[in-house]
Fold this protein.
Amino acid sequence: MNKNVTRALWAGLLCLLALAPFVVGTVEISAFQKVVYLSVAVMSLNVLTGFNGQASIGHSAFMGIAAYFTALAVQSHGWSYWAALPASILVAALVGALAGVPALRIRGMNLALVTLGLGMVFPQLPIRFTEETGGTQGMPVDEPLAAPAFLNVSDVAWRYWVLLALAALVFWLVRNFRASRVGRAVIAIRDQPIAAHTAGVNVAATKIAVFAVSAGMAGLAGWMFTVANQFVSPSDFTVLVSINLLLGMAIGGSGTLAGPVIGAVFLHYIPEAVNGTGIDPVLTPALYGLILILVVYFLPGGAAGGLAQLSARFAASRRSPDEPGQAPPSTPRLTSSTSHP
Amino acid sequence: MPRLSVEELELSFGGIRALNKLSFAVAEGELCALVGPNGAGKSSVFNCITGLYRPSAGRVVFDGRDLLRLPAHRVAAQGVARTFQNLALFPRLTVLENVLLGGHLNERPGPLACALHLPRHRRAERALRAQADEVLALTGLESLAGNPASGLPYGTLKRVELARALMSRPRLLLLDEPAAGLPHGEVGELGDLIARIRAELGISIVLVEHHMGMVMSISDKVVVLNLGRRICEGTPEEVSRDPEVIAAYLGEAA
Protein backbone atom coordinates (compact mmCIF):
# COMPACT_ATOMS: atom_id res chain seq x y z
CA MET A 1 0.00 0.00 0.00
CA ASN A 2 1.13 3.50 -0.72
CA LYS A 3 3.00 4.99 2.21
CA ASN A 4 0.92 8.16 2.30
CA VAL A 5 -2.34 6.26 2.09
CA THR A 6 -1.27 4.06 4.99
CA ARG A 7 -0.27 7.09 7.00
CA ALA A 8 -3.58 8.82 6.28
CA LEU A 9 -5.52 5.71 7.28
CA TRP A 10 -3.72 5.50 10.62
CA ALA A 11 -4.22 9.21 11.28
CA GLY A 12 -7.90 8.95 10.36
CA LEU A 13 -8.41 5.96 12.63
CA LEU A 14 -6.72 7.76 15.50
CA CYS A 15 -8.86 10.90 14.99
CA LEU A 16 -12.06 8.88 14.87
CA LEU A 17 -11.13 7.03 18.04
CA ALA A 18 -10.13 10.26 19.78
CA LEU A 19 -13.51 11.81 18.97
CA ALA A 20 -15.46 8.74 20.06
CA PRO A 21 -16.30 9.99 23.60
CA PHE A 22 -18.32 12.84 22.06
CA VAL A 23 -20.42 10.41 20.06
CA VAL A 24 -20.92 7.16 21.91
CA GLY A 25 -21.86 6.37 25.49
CA THR A 26 -19.91 5.20 28.52
CA VAL A 27 -20.51 1.51 27.88
CA GLU A 28 -18.94 1.70 24.42
CA ILE A 29 -16.03 3.77 25.71
CA SER A 30 -15.32 1.13 28.35
CA ALA A 31 -15.28 -1.46 25.58
CA PHE A 32 -12.91 0.73 23.55
CA GLN A 33 -10.60 0.97 26.57
CA LYS A 34 -10.43 -2.77 26.66
CA VAL A 35 -9.66 -2.94 22.94
CA VAL A 36 -6.90 -0.37 23.40
CA TYR A 37 -5.10 -2.24 26.17
CA LEU A 38 -5.61 -5.52 24.35
CA SER A 39 -3.98 -3.95 21.26
CA VAL A 40 -0.94 -3.03 23.31
CA ALA A 41 -0.84 -6.50 24.87
CA VAL A 42 -1.09 -8.22 21.48
CA MET A 43 1.55 -5.85 20.11
CA SER A 44 3.89 -6.73 22.98
CA LEU A 45 3.64 -10.38 22.01
CA ASN A 46 3.95 -9.46 18.35
CA VAL A 47 7.27 -7.71 19.00
CA LEU A 48 8.63 -10.83 20.66
CA THR A 49 7.07 -13.56 18.55
CA GLY A 50 6.06 -11.88 15.31
CA PHE A 51 9.23 -9.84 14.79
CA ASN A 52 11.84 -11.72 16.78
CA GLY A 53 10.53 -15.30 16.51
CA GLN A 54 10.64 -16.09 20.23
CA ALA A 55 7.52 -17.81 21.52
CA SER A 56 5.85 -16.90 24.80
CA ILE A 57 2.79 -18.21 26.60
CA GLY A 58 3.73 -16.16 29.63
CA HIS A 59 2.67 -12.69 28.63
CA SER A 60 -0.34 -12.81 30.94
CA ALA A 61 2.20 -12.90 33.77
CA PHE A 62 3.99 -9.74 32.61
CA MET A 63 0.63 -8.00 32.31
CA GLY A 64 -0.42 -9.29 35.70
CA ILE A 65 2.80 -8.25 37.42
CA ALA A 66 2.36 -4.66 36.26
CA ALA A 67 -1.39 -4.64 36.90
CA TYR A 68 -0.96 -5.90 40.46
CA PHE A 69 2.02 -3.64 41.02
CA THR A 70 -0.11 -0.65 40.02
CA ALA A 71 -3.09 -1.77 42.10
CA LEU A 72 -0.97 -2.33 45.20
CA ALA A 73 0.99 0.89 44.75
CA VAL A 74 -2.13 3.01 44.31
CA GLN A 75 -4.45 1.25 46.77
CA SER A 76 -2.10 0.25 49.57
CA HIS A 77 0.81 2.66 49.29
CA GLY A 78 -0.84 5.87 48.18
CA TRP A 79 1.07 6.22 44.90
CA SER A 80 -0.47 8.10 42.00
CA TYR A 81 -1.20 6.15 38.83
CA TRP A 82 1.37 8.29 37.06
CA ALA A 83 4.11 7.30 39.45
CA ALA A 84 3.12 3.66 39.08
CA LEU A 85 3.27 3.86 35.26
CA PRO A 86 7.06 3.86 34.72
CA ALA A 87 7.66 1.71 37.79
CA SER A 88 5.25 -1.04 36.73
CA ILE A 89 6.68 -1.10 33.18
CA LEU A 90 10.17 -1.37 34.60
CA VAL A 91 9.26 -4.23 36.94
CA ALA A 92 7.64 -6.17 34.09
CA ALA A 93 10.65 -5.49 31.83
CA LEU A 94 13.08 -6.72 34.48
CA VAL A 95 11.16 -9.96 34.95
CA GLY A 96 11.05 -10.21 31.15
CA ALA A 97 14.82 -9.81 30.87
CA LEU A 98 15.27 -12.65 33.38
CA ALA A 99 12.79 -14.79 31.44
CA GLY A 100 14.79 -14.01 28.30
CA VAL A 101 17.95 -15.61 29.63
CA PRO A 102 16.80 -19.23 29.18
CA ALA A 103 15.58 -18.19 25.72
CA LEU A 104 19.22 -17.95 24.66
CA ARG A 105 19.66 -21.70 25.00
CA ILE A 106 16.22 -23.00 24.16
CA ARG A 107 13.77 -22.10 21.47
CA GLY A 108 10.51 -23.08 19.88
CA MET A 109 8.35 -25.48 21.81
CA ASN A 110 10.67 -25.72 24.82
CA LEU A 111 10.79 -21.95 25.22
CA ALA A 112 7.02 -21.88 25.01
CA LEU A 113 6.94 -24.43 27.85
CA VAL A 114 9.24 -22.34 30.05
CA THR A 115 7.08 -19.26 29.56
CA LEU A 116 4.02 -21.43 30.10
CA GLY A 117 5.45 -22.16 33.54
CA LEU A 118 5.66 -18.44 34.22
CA GLY A 119 2.09 -17.96 33.06
CA MET A 120 0.84 -20.79 35.27
CA VAL A 121 2.72 -19.71 38.38
CA PHE A 122 1.71 -16.07 38.30
CA PRO A 123 -1.99 -16.38 39.27
CA GLN A 124 -0.89 -18.35 42.35
CA LEU A 125 1.10 -15.42 43.71
CA PRO A 126 -1.84 -13.14 44.66
CA ILE A 127 -3.50 -16.16 46.28
CA ARG A 128 -0.37 -16.85 48.29
CA PHE A 129 -0.41 -13.24 49.52
CA THR A 130 -4.15 -13.06 50.13
CA GLU A 131 -3.84 -10.53 52.97
CA GLU A 132 -2.29 -7.92 50.70
CA THR A 133 -4.08 -8.75 47.46
CA GLY A 134 -7.49 -10.13 48.39
CA GLY A 135 -6.54 -13.51 46.94
CA THR A 136 -9.03 -15.10 44.58
CA GLN A 137 -11.60 -12.44 45.50
CA GLY A 138 -9.52 -9.89 43.67
CA MET A 139 -8.62 -6.40 44.69
CA PRO A 140 -10.55 -3.23 43.97
CA VAL A 141 -8.72 0.09 43.61
CA ASP A 142 -10.84 2.88 45.03
CA GLU A 143 -9.07 5.84 43.52
CA PRO A 144 -9.73 6.40 39.82
CA LEU A 145 -7.33 8.01 37.40
CA ALA A 146 -9.20 11.30 37.55
CA ALA A 147 -9.32 13.91 34.82
CA PRO A 148 -7.62 17.20 35.66
CA ALA A 149 -10.35 19.57 36.87
CA PHE A 150 -9.61 22.35 34.38
CA LEU A 151 -10.36 20.09 31.41
CA ASN A 152 -13.94 19.63 32.53
CA VAL A 153 -14.32 16.17 30.96
CA SER A 154 -15.62 12.95 32.47
CA ASP A 155 -13.13 10.57 34.07
CA VAL A 156 -14.11 7.79 31.71
CA ALA A 157 -13.33 9.91 28.64
CA TRP A 158 -10.08 11.09 30.20
CA ARG A 159 -8.92 7.55 30.99
CA TYR A 160 -9.81 6.48 27.47
CA TRP A 161 -7.76 9.32 25.98
CA VAL A 162 -4.79 8.54 28.21
CA LEU A 163 -4.89 4.90 27.14
CA LEU A 164 -5.37 5.81 23.50
CA ALA A 165 -2.46 8.28 23.54
CA LEU A 166 -0.11 5.78 25.17
CA ALA A 167 -1.14 3.06 22.74
CA ALA A 168 -0.61 5.41 19.79
CA LEU A 169 2.84 6.21 21.16
CA VAL A 170 3.67 2.50 21.42
CA PHE A 171 2.55 1.82 17.86
CA TRP A 172 4.54 4.81 16.58
CA LEU A 173 7.65 3.57 18.35
CA VAL A 174 7.23 0.07 16.95
CA ARG A 175 6.71 1.47 13.46
CA ASN A 176 9.93 3.52 13.62
CA PHE A 177 11.80 0.65 15.05
CA ARG A 178 10.54 -1.75 12.37
CA ALA A 179 12.08 0.41 9.64
CA SER A 180 15.44 0.84 11.31
CA ARG A 181 18.76 -0.88 11.67
CA VAL A 182 17.77 -2.37 15.01
CA GLY A 183 14.40 -3.58 13.74
CA ARG A 184 16.02 -5.28 10.75
CA ALA A 185 18.44 -7.02 13.10
CA VAL A 186 15.51 -8.24 15.23
CA ILE A 187 13.78 -9.68 12.16
CA ALA A 188 17.05 -11.13 10.88
CA ILE A 189 17.39 -13.09 14.12
CA ARG A 190 13.91 -14.52 13.57
CA ASP A 191 14.65 -15.64 10.01
CA GLN A 192 18.33 -16.60 10.04
CA PRO A 193 20.18 -16.29 13.33
CA ILE A 194 23.43 -17.53 11.83
CA ALA A 195 23.39 -15.01 9.01
CA ALA A 196 22.55 -12.32 11.57
CA HIS A 197 25.61 -13.38 13.57
CA THR A 198 27.90 -13.14 10.59
CA ALA A 199 26.54 -9.71 9.73
CA GLY A 200 27.68 -8.55 13.16
CA VAL A 201 24.40 -8.66 15.09
CA ASN A 202 24.85 -9.54 18.75
CA VAL A 203 22.13 -12.17 18.74
CA ALA A 204 22.15 -13.01 22.45
CA ALA A 205 22.03 -9.41 23.69
CA THR A 206 19.35 -8.50 21.15
CA LYS A 207 17.13 -11.43 22.12
CA ILE A 208 17.26 -10.55 25.81
CA ALA A 209 16.63 -6.88 25.06
CA VAL A 210 13.62 -7.76 22.90
CA PHE A 211 12.28 -9.99 25.67
CA ALA A 212 12.62 -7.14 28.15
CA VAL A 213 11.01 -4.57 25.85
CA SER A 214 8.17 -6.93 25.02
CA ALA A 215 7.55 -7.67 28.70
CA GLY A 216 7.67 -3.94 29.44
CA MET A 217 5.01 -3.34 26.79
CA ALA A 218 2.88 -6.10 28.27
CA GLY A 219 3.45 -4.32 31.58
CA LEU A 220 2.09 -1.12 30.07
CA ALA A 221 -0.99 -3.09 29.03
CA GLY A 222 -1.23 -4.30 32.63
CA TRP A 223 -1.08 -0.73 33.96
CA MET A 224 -3.81 0.16 31.46
CA PHE A 225 -5.85 -2.80 32.71
CA THR A 226 -5.81 -1.49 36.28
CA VAL A 227 -6.55 2.06 35.14
CA ALA A 228 -9.50 0.90 33.04
CA ASN A 229 -11.01 -1.62 35.45
CA GLN A 230 -9.89 -0.40 38.90
CA PHE A 231 -9.95 -4.02 39.83
CA VAL A 232 -7.50 -6.91 39.51
CA SER A 233 -7.96 -10.58 40.26
CA PRO A 234 -5.91 -13.72 39.56
CA SER A 235 -8.47 -14.89 37.01
CA ASP A 236 -7.70 -11.84 34.84
CA PHE A 237 -4.16 -13.08 34.22
CA THR A 238 -4.41 -16.79 33.65
CA VAL A 239 -2.59 -18.69 30.93
CA LEU A 240 -5.80 -18.52 28.92
CA VAL A 241 -5.19 -14.76 28.55
CA SER A 242 -1.74 -15.48 27.07
CA ILE A 243 -3.27 -17.94 24.66
CA ASN A 244 -5.88 -15.38 23.65
CA LEU A 245 -3.08 -12.89 22.96
CA LEU A 246 -1.39 -15.47 20.71
CA LEU A 247 -4.72 -16.05 19.00
CA GLY A 248 -5.22 -12.33 18.48
CA MET A 249 -1.73 -12.01 17.03
CA ALA A 250 -2.20 -14.92 14.63
CA ILE A 251 -5.60 -13.78 13.45
CA GLY A 252 -4.63 -10.12 13.15
CA GLY A 253 -1.35 -10.92 11.42
CA SER A 254 1.97 -11.55 13.15
CA GLY A 255 4.89 -9.33 12.24
CA THR A 256 2.63 -6.48 11.12
CA LEU A 257 1.58 -3.17 12.66
CA ALA A 258 -2.16 -3.35 11.96
CA GLY A 259 -2.43 -6.98 13.06
CA PRO A 260 -2.54 -6.35 16.82
CA VAL A 261 -5.35 -3.80 16.41
CA ILE A 262 -7.41 -6.22 14.35
CA GLY A 263 -6.57 -9.00 16.80
CA ALA A 264 -7.69 -6.92 19.78
CA VAL A 265 -10.98 -6.01 18.09
CA PHE A 266 -11.49 -9.69 17.40
CA LEU A 267 -10.70 -10.73 20.97
CA HIS A 268 -13.18 -8.28 22.44
CA TYR A 269 -16.06 -8.28 19.98
CA ILE A 270 -16.29 -11.90 18.85
CA PRO A 271 -17.35 -13.19 22.28
CA GLU A 272 -19.88 -10.29 22.43
CA ALA A 273 -21.19 -11.15 19.00
CA VAL A 274 -21.50 -14.77 20.03
CA ASN A 275 -23.58 -13.72 23.02
CA GLY A 276 -25.73 -11.56 20.79
CA THR A 277 -26.65 -14.43 18.46
CA GLY A 278 -27.95 -16.49 21.36
CA ILE A 279 -25.42 -19.27 20.85
CA ASP A 280 -24.32 -20.81 24.11
CA PRO A 281 -21.23 -18.78 25.18
CA VAL A 282 -19.62 -22.04 26.20
CA LEU A 283 -19.09 -22.59 22.49
CA THR A 284 -16.96 -19.44 22.07
CA PRO A 285 -13.65 -21.32 22.37
CA ALA A 286 -14.84 -23.74 19.71
CA LEU A 287 -15.66 -20.81 17.45
CA TYR A 288 -12.20 -19.30 18.15
CA GLY A 289 -10.64 -22.60 17.21
CA LEU A 290 -12.61 -22.82 13.99
CA ILE A 291 -11.73 -19.25 12.99
CA LEU A 292 -8.08 -19.84 13.84
CA ILE A 293 -7.94 -22.94 11.64
CA LEU A 294 -9.58 -21.08 8.78
CA VAL A 295 -7.24 -18.10 9.13
CA VAL A 296 -4.09 -20.20 9.32
CA TYR A 297 -5.26 -22.16 6.31
CA PHE A 298 -6.47 -19.37 4.06
CA LEU A 299 -4.70 -16.26 5.40
CA PRO A 300 -1.31 -17.32 6.71
CA GLY A 301 -0.40 -13.62 7.08
CA GLY A 302 -3.46 -13.03 9.24
CA ALA A 303 -6.07 -10.39 8.53
CA ALA A 304 -3.42 -7.66 8.07
CA GLY A 305 -1.49 -9.84 5.62
CA GLY A 306 -4.69 -10.57 3.73
CA LEU A 307 -5.54 -6.87 3.51
CA ALA A 308 -2.06 -6.02 2.24
CA GLN A 309 -2.42 -8.69 -0.45
CA LEU A 310 -5.84 -7.39 -1.44
CA SER A 311 -4.62 -3.82 -1.76
CA ALA A 312 -1.61 -4.99 -3.80
CA ARG A 313 -4.00 -6.79 -6.13
CA PHE A 314 -6.20 -3.74 -6.35
CA ALA A 315 -3.23 -1.52 -7.17
CA ALA A 316 -2.00 -3.98 -9.80
CA SER A 317 -5.41 -4.23 -11.45
CA ARG A 318 -5.67 -0.45 -11.58
CA ARG A 319 -2.29 -0.17 -13.28
CA SER A 320 -3.21 -2.63 -16.02
CA PRO A 321 -6.93 -3.26 -16.26
CA ASP A 322 -6.50 -6.04 -18.84
CA GLU A 323 -4.23 -8.19 -16.79
CA PRO A 324 -5.52 -10.10 -13.82
CA GLY A 325 -4.21 -8.82 -10.51
CA GLN A 326 -0.74 -9.83 -9.69
CA ALA A 327 -0.92 -13.18 -8.05
CA PRO A 328 0.59 -13.33 -4.59
CA PRO A 329 4.13 -14.53 -5.14
CA SER A 330 4.47 -18.22 -4.69
CA THR A 331 7.04 -18.76 -2.06
CA PRO A 332 9.82 -21.18 -2.76
CA ARG A 333 11.51 -21.72 0.56
CA LEU A 334 14.68 -19.76 0.96
CA THR A 335 15.78 -21.78 3.87
CA SER A 336 15.06 -25.07 5.43
CA SER A 337 14.61 -23.77 8.94
CA THR A 338 12.20 -20.87 8.72
CA SER A 339 8.83 -21.27 10.25
CA HIS A 340 6.67 -18.62 11.75
CA PRO A 341 4.55 -19.39 14.71
CA MET B 1 52.48 -10.50 5.96
CA PRO B 2 49.45 -12.27 4.54
CA ARG B 3 46.04 -10.76 5.17
CA LEU B 4 44.59 -14.05 6.38
CA SER B 5 46.58 -16.93 7.69
CA VAL B 6 45.00 -20.15 8.82
CA GLU B 7 47.45 -22.06 10.99
CA GLU B 8 47.33 -25.72 11.98
CA LEU B 9 43.56 -25.79 12.34
CA GLU B 10 42.10 -28.91 13.96
CA LEU B 11 38.40 -29.65 14.20
CA SER B 12 36.60 -32.89 15.06
CA PHE B 13 32.98 -33.93 15.14
CA GLY B 14 32.75 -36.97 17.36
CA GLY B 15 35.30 -39.34 15.92
CA ILE B 16 35.51 -37.62 12.57
CA ARG B 17 38.41 -35.29 11.93
CA ALA B 18 36.93 -32.54 9.81
CA LEU B 19 40.15 -30.50 9.73
CA ASN B 20 43.58 -31.95 10.29
CA LYS B 21 46.39 -29.46 10.89
CA LEU B 22 45.16 -27.35 8.03
CA SER B 23 47.20 -24.29 7.10
CA PHE B 24 47.02 -21.81 4.25
CA ALA B 25 47.44 -18.09 3.73
CA VAL B 26 45.74 -15.46 1.61
CA ALA B 27 47.55 -12.29 0.58
CA GLU B 28 46.01 -8.85 0.29
CA GLY B 29 43.88 -8.62 -2.83
CA GLU B 30 44.39 -12.30 -3.62
CA LEU B 31 41.66 -14.61 -4.85
CA CYS B 32 42.27 -17.99 -3.29
CA ALA B 33 40.11 -20.99 -4.14
CA LEU B 34 39.55 -23.88 -1.76
CA VAL B 35 38.65 -27.02 -3.64
CA GLY B 36 38.23 -30.65 -2.74
CA PRO B 37 35.66 -33.41 -2.73
CA ASN B 38 32.53 -33.21 -0.60
CA GLY B 39 33.39 -33.58 3.06
CA ALA B 40 36.93 -32.34 2.56
CA GLY B 41 36.31 -29.62 5.16
CA LYS B 42 35.91 -26.55 2.98
CA SER B 43 32.79 -25.15 4.61
CA SER B 44 34.18 -26.09 8.02
CA VAL B 45 37.09 -23.74 7.35
CA PHE B 46 34.62 -20.91 6.70
CA ASN B 47 32.68 -21.74 9.83
CA CYS B 48 35.90 -21.64 11.86
CA ILE B 49 36.97 -18.31 10.37
CA THR B 50 33.58 -16.73 11.09
CA GLY B 51 33.40 -18.11 14.62
CA LEU B 52 30.49 -20.51 14.14
CA TYR B 53 32.69 -23.54 14.87
CA ARG B 54 35.36 -23.61 17.55
CA PRO B 55 38.40 -25.62 16.41
CA SER B 56 40.23 -27.58 19.07
CA ALA B 57 43.61 -26.23 18.01
CA GLY B 58 45.18 -23.76 15.63
CA ARG B 59 44.86 -20.08 14.86
CA VAL B 60 43.07 -17.91 12.33
CA VAL B 61 45.06 -14.70 12.05
CA PHE B 62 43.46 -11.84 10.15
CA ASP B 63 45.39 -8.58 9.91
CA GLY B 64 47.47 -9.64 12.88
CA ARG B 65 44.52 -10.55 15.11
CA ASP B 66 43.44 -14.04 16.15
CA LEU B 67 39.79 -14.30 15.11
CA LEU B 68 39.25 -17.42 17.21
CA ARG B 69 39.40 -15.29 20.34
CA LEU B 70 36.35 -13.29 19.22
CA PRO B 71 32.66 -14.20 19.56
CA ALA B 72 30.98 -14.80 16.21
CA HIS B 73 29.25 -11.44 16.01
CA ARG B 74 32.53 -9.57 16.52
CA VAL B 75 34.21 -11.19 13.50
CA ALA B 76 32.22 -9.07 11.06
CA ALA B 77 33.57 -5.92 12.69
CA GLN B 78 37.10 -7.03 11.76
CA GLY B 79 36.15 -6.86 8.08
CA VAL B 80 35.12 -10.42 7.29
CA ALA B 81 31.94 -11.18 5.35
CA ARG B 82 30.62 -14.41 3.88
CA THR B 83 27.91 -16.06 1.87
CA PHE B 84 26.38 -19.42 2.66
CA GLN B 85 26.32 -22.65 0.70
CA ASN B 86 22.58 -22.94 1.25
CA LEU B 87 21.07 -19.51 1.12
CA ALA B 88 20.63 -17.75 4.44
CA LEU B 89 18.46 -14.79 3.46
CA PHE B 90 15.62 -13.09 5.29
CA PRO B 91 12.62 -14.12 3.18
CA ARG B 92 10.06 -11.62 4.44
CA LEU B 93 12.37 -8.63 4.02
CA THR B 94 12.87 -6.92 0.68
CA VAL B 95 16.04 -7.28 -1.35
CA LEU B 96 17.03 -3.78 -0.20
CA GLU B 97 16.41 -4.60 3.46
CA ASN B 98 18.43 -7.81 3.13
CA VAL B 99 21.32 -5.80 1.73
CA LEU B 100 20.92 -3.07 4.36
CA LEU B 101 21.31 -5.67 7.08
CA GLY B 102 24.78 -6.40 5.74
CA GLY B 103 25.63 -2.84 6.75
CA HIS B 104 24.57 -3.42 10.34
CA LEU B 105 27.92 -2.18 11.64
CA ASN B 106 28.51 0.61 9.11
CA GLU B 107 26.25 3.06 10.91
CA ARG B 108 25.27 2.53 14.49
CA PRO B 109 22.35 4.57 15.75
CA GLY B 110 21.14 3.00 19.00
CA PRO B 111 17.72 1.49 19.73
CA LEU B 112 16.45 4.72 21.24
CA ALA B 113 17.46 6.85 18.25
CA CYS B 114 15.75 4.30 16.00
CA ALA B 115 12.50 4.07 17.97
CA LEU B 116 12.22 7.84 18.37
CA HIS B 117 13.13 8.46 14.73
CA LEU B 118 15.82 10.92 15.81
CA PRO B 119 17.87 12.83 13.20
CA ARG B 120 20.84 10.62 13.97
CA HIS B 121 18.83 7.59 12.84
CA ARG B 122 17.54 9.35 9.73
CA ARG B 123 21.06 10.39 8.73
CA ALA B 124 22.27 6.83 9.25
CA GLU B 125 19.43 5.42 7.11
CA ARG B 126 20.25 7.85 4.30
CA ALA B 127 23.94 6.93 4.42
CA LEU B 128 23.10 3.22 4.42
CA ARG B 129 20.70 3.67 1.51
CA ALA B 130 23.43 5.35 -0.53
CA GLN B 131 25.86 2.53 0.21
CA ALA B 132 23.21 -0.08 -0.57
CA ASP B 133 22.42 1.58 -3.90
CA GLU B 134 26.07 1.29 -4.91
CA VAL B 135 26.22 -2.38 -3.96
CA LEU B 136 22.91 -3.09 -5.72
CA ALA B 137 24.24 -1.42 -8.86
CA LEU B 138 27.47 -3.43 -8.73
CA THR B 139 25.54 -6.69 -8.44
CA GLY B 140 22.87 -5.69 -10.97
CA LEU B 141 19.98 -5.79 -8.51
CA GLU B 142 18.78 -2.14 -8.67
CA SER B 143 15.46 -2.99 -10.27
CA LEU B 144 14.63 -5.60 -7.63
CA ALA B 145 15.36 -3.51 -4.54
CA GLY B 146 11.72 -3.31 -3.42
CA ASN B 147 10.87 -6.98 -4.06
CA PRO B 148 10.49 -9.35 -1.15
CA ALA B 149 13.39 -11.79 -1.20
CA SER B 150 11.06 -14.77 -1.25
CA GLY B 151 9.93 -15.70 -4.73
CA LEU B 152 13.03 -14.54 -6.63
CA PRO B 153 14.96 -16.99 -8.78
CA TYR B 154 17.79 -18.90 -7.16
CA GLY B 155 20.55 -17.22 -9.13
CA THR B 156 19.23 -13.80 -8.14
CA LEU B 157 19.09 -14.79 -4.48
CA LYS B 158 22.73 -15.83 -4.68
CA ARG B 159 23.53 -12.33 -5.88
CA VAL B 160 21.45 -10.82 -3.07
CA GLU B 161 23.58 -12.75 -0.59
CA LEU B 162 26.72 -11.54 -2.32
CA ALA B 163 25.41 -7.97 -2.16
CA ARG B 164 24.62 -8.34 1.54
CA ALA B 165 28.17 -9.54 2.17
CA LEU B 166 29.66 -6.67 0.16
CA MET B 167 27.51 -4.15 2.01
CA SER B 168 29.68 -4.53 5.11
CA ARG B 169 32.67 -3.25 3.09
CA PRO B 170 34.73 -6.33 3.96
CA ARG B 171 38.47 -6.71 3.51
CA LEU B 172 38.03 -10.46 3.30
CA LEU B 173 35.11 -12.06 1.48
CA LEU B 174 34.32 -15.75 1.92
CA LEU B 175 32.19 -17.21 -0.86
CA ASP B 176 30.76 -20.67 -0.20
CA GLU B 177 29.86 -22.34 -3.50
CA PRO B 178 28.43 -19.25 -5.18
CA ALA B 179 27.93 -21.10 -8.47
CA ALA B 180 26.19 -24.17 -7.04
CA GLY B 181 22.75 -24.64 -8.55
CA LEU B 182 23.18 -21.93 -11.17
CA PRO B 183 22.27 -22.61 -14.80
CA HIS B 184 25.35 -22.93 -16.96
CA GLY B 185 25.07 -19.53 -18.60
CA GLU B 186 24.96 -17.71 -15.28
CA VAL B 187 28.14 -19.32 -13.99
CA GLY B 188 30.26 -17.33 -16.42
CA GLU B 189 28.53 -14.09 -15.47
CA LEU B 190 29.06 -14.82 -11.79
CA GLY B 191 32.76 -15.50 -12.40
CA ASP B 192 33.06 -12.16 -14.16
CA LEU B 193 31.25 -10.44 -11.29
CA ILE B 194 33.56 -11.97 -8.69
CA ALA B 195 36.63 -11.01 -10.72
CA ARG B 196 35.28 -7.47 -11.06
CA ILE B 197 34.56 -7.19 -7.34
CA ARG B 198 38.12 -8.22 -6.61
CA ALA B 199 39.49 -5.74 -9.13
CA GLU B 200 37.29 -2.79 -8.17
CA LEU B 201 37.27 -3.22 -4.42
CA GLY B 202 40.73 -4.73 -4.04
CA ILE B 203 39.61 -7.15 -1.36
CA SER B 204 40.89 -10.62 -0.59
CA ILE B 205 38.50 -13.41 -1.53
CA VAL B 206 38.39 -17.04 -0.49
CA LEU B 207 36.25 -19.06 -2.86
CA VAL B 208 34.91 -22.53 -2.16
CA GLU B 209 33.65 -23.92 -5.43
CA HIS B 210 33.10 -27.16 -7.28
CA HIS B 211 32.78 -25.51 -10.65
CA MET B 212 36.35 -26.05 -11.83
CA GLY B 213 36.03 -23.91 -14.96
CA MET B 214 35.28 -20.88 -12.84
CA VAL B 215 37.93 -21.71 -10.26
CA MET B 216 40.63 -22.13 -12.85
CA SER B 217 39.74 -18.96 -14.73
CA ILE B 218 39.59 -16.44 -11.89
CA SER B 219 41.76 -17.73 -9.03
CA ASP B 220 45.30 -16.59 -8.26
CA LYS B 221 45.90 -19.55 -6.04
CA VAL B 222 44.20 -22.88 -5.45
CA VAL B 223 44.37 -24.86 -2.22
CA VAL B 224 43.26 -28.46 -2.54
CA LEU B 225 41.82 -30.21 0.50
CA ASN B 226 41.06 -33.85 1.05
CA LEU B 227 39.80 -35.37 4.29
CA GLY B 228 40.55 -32.22 6.22
CA ARG B 229 44.15 -31.77 5.13
CA ARG B 230 45.83 -29.72 2.50
CA ILE B 231 47.17 -31.95 -0.23
CA CYS B 232 48.39 -29.34 -2.63
CA GLU B 233 48.64 -25.59 -3.19
CA GLY B 234 49.64 -23.51 -6.18
CA THR B 235 48.50 -21.65 -9.25
CA PRO B 236 45.61 -23.20 -11.15
CA GLU B 237 48.05 -24.64 -13.70
CA GLU B 238 50.31 -26.17 -11.08
CA VAL B 239 47.41 -27.70 -9.21
CA SER B 240 45.79 -29.22 -12.25
CA ARG B 241 49.05 -31.03 -13.04
CA ASP B 242 49.61 -32.37 -9.54
CA PRO B 243 49.33 -36.17 -9.53
CA GLU B 244 47.95 -36.32 -5.96
CA VAL B 245 45.19 -33.86 -6.86
CA ILE B 246 44.32 -35.79 -9.95
CA ALA B 247 44.06 -38.94 -7.89
CA ALA B 248 42.01 -37.49 -5.06
CA TYR B 249 39.75 -35.09 -6.79
CA LEU B 250 39.72 -35.18 -10.53
CA GLY B 251 39.87 -38.96 -10.68
CA GLU B 252 42.62 -41.17 -12.13
CA ALA B 253 43.68 -40.09 -15.58
CA ALA B 254 42.22 -42.33 -18.20
Chain B has ten helices and ten strands.
